[in-house]
Amino acid sequence: MVAKAEQLEGKANPRFVVTSFAPGQWEARALYEKLYCARGEMENRIKEQMMLFADRMSAETLRANQLRLYLSSFAYLLMEGRRRLGLAGTELARAQPQTLRLRLFKIAARVRVSVRRIWLSFPRASPCQAQFRQCWAALHC
Question: In the beta sheet, which residues pair with residue 12?
Answer without folding.
Answer: 7
